[in-house]
Amino acid sequence: YVWDANEEYLFKAMVAFAMRRYSSKSTTQISNVLLCNVTDRVSFWFVVTDSSKNVTTVPGSEVEAAIRMNRNRINNAFLLSDKTLQFLKITSTLSPPVEPSTPVWLIVFGVVLCLIVAGIVFLVVSGIQKHKKKNKESTDRENLEEKVEVTLENGIPCEALDLKAGHINGVFAADDERFTSL
């Protein structure tokens, strides 16, 4: 925007305001703020005078302290920030640290809890898959053993002998009772 006499008046008023707030005296007037060497790029230096004392200018340390104390109000008056409104020899004010809406410990706790839950779910799912795979392998072995036991003799499927339990031949089992023993 254009820096004109109205903007200069506002700047002088803001510096006078800062000086009044800092010193708690109402002796500083707008006419006590003098702008010198104003350029087109809005660069200048200023002096604050004190008409109540014999001293013609206020010490620079007091002016710096007053501006540092009220810098936010001055920036807001011109709709600027510390990056756009620069006072030489006066360090810029640090903005307060940003506080997250949730505490940091809660975020860390949530991440750790999610990792633990994911690990437990992984272990349960992998255990179930191993159990199913083991059951499938055991049923496949039983099926293979049953297929192996069935043999063919003379084109007729015959069951293999179960050597542990023995084998009863059905042809002779019923005949033992009909015939007399020798």
Automatic annotation (TrEMBL):
GO terms for cellular component: extracellular exosome; plasma membrane. Pfam families: Collectrin (PF16959). It comes from the Eukaryota. One of its GO terms (biological process) is positive regulation of amino acid transport. InterPro entries: Collectrin, Collectrin_dom. Keywords: Cell membrane, Glycoprotein, Membrane, Phosphoprotein, Signal, Transmembrane, Transmembrane helix. It is a single-pass type I membrane protein. It is found in: Cell membrane. This is TMM27 protein. It comes from Donacobius atricapilla. The gene is Tmem27.
